[in-house]
Amino acid sequence: MNAIERVGDYCKLMIRTFGVPDRWSMFFKQYKNELIKLGLDSIMINVIISFFIGAVITIQMKLNMSNPILPGYLTGLAVRDTLLLEFSPTIICIILAGKVGSNIASEVGSMRITEQIDALDIMGVNSANYLILPKIAAMVSFIPCLVIISIFMGIIGGLFVAEFTDTITTHEYVTGIQFMFVPFYVTYAIIKSMVFAFIITSVASYYGYTVKGGALEVGKASTDAVVNSSILILMTNLMLTKLLLT
Question: What is the domain range of residue 121?
Answer without folding.
Answer: 31-245
